[in-house]
Write a structure and sequence with these properties.
Radius of gyration: 18 Å
Helix content: 55-70%
Number of strands: 2
Largest sheet: 2 strands, antiparallel
Oligomer: single chain
Strand content: under 5%
Length: 167
């Protein structure tokens, strides 16, 4: 079940990345779009979960918006923010963040050697912060008990495998 869940999450991230990245070229907006995609389709089914035969189910009273947003924050926004921080800490220049901090984008000219300029003392903090968020996301998602991980137990949801005929 864990492998199916990971494949479904990867497919959902790839779908959002392929659709959104060419439009915005902004990692923070890609993460926000992935979180929105996950939250909006949580009551229905995301494409990744549909392809892997999984579905998120809520309590008998239904899945409230608050529960859906809490689950999405932990499953999508947290690792997405970690990924953005890691990329920024490694010196990859994110347009909006670096422009807001007054840094210049490196321009690439055909045949020119590209050098990555250090982000100074903030780069290690971003890198470590991003790695901490990614590790926390991995640890909480690996806390699988039956059909429920930590974020499922906290949000009152479970991921179940659909029968072959009910897809």
């Amino acid at each position: 079940m864990l492998v199916r869940r990971m494949v479904a999450r990867l497919l959902d991230w790839l779908l959002v990345l392929v659709v959104v990245w060419p439009l915005v070229h902004e990692p923070v907006l890609v993460v926000l779009c992935a979180a929105g995609y996950d939250a909006l389709l949580l009551r229905l089914n995301t494409l990744g979960k549909a392809l892997t035969g999984l579905r998120v189910v809520g309590p008998a009273s239904g899945l409230s918006l608050r529960r859906a947003l809490a689950r999405t924050l932990v499953t999508t926004a947290l690792p997405g923010a970690g990924g953005v921080l890691v990329l920024t800490g490694l010196g990859w220049r994110e347009p909006a963040l670096t422009a807001g901090l007054g840094w210049q984008q490196p321009r690439i000219v055909a045949g020119e050697h590209l050098t990555v300029v250090s982000a100074g003392w903030l780069a290690p903090l971003w890198l470590v912060g991003g790695l901490v968020l990614l590790v926390l996301s991995a640890v909480e998602s690996l806390d699988l008990r039956g059909t429920r991980t930590w974020h499922d137990r906290k949000s009152g949801t479970a991921v179940v495998r659909l029968k072959a005929g009910s897809r």
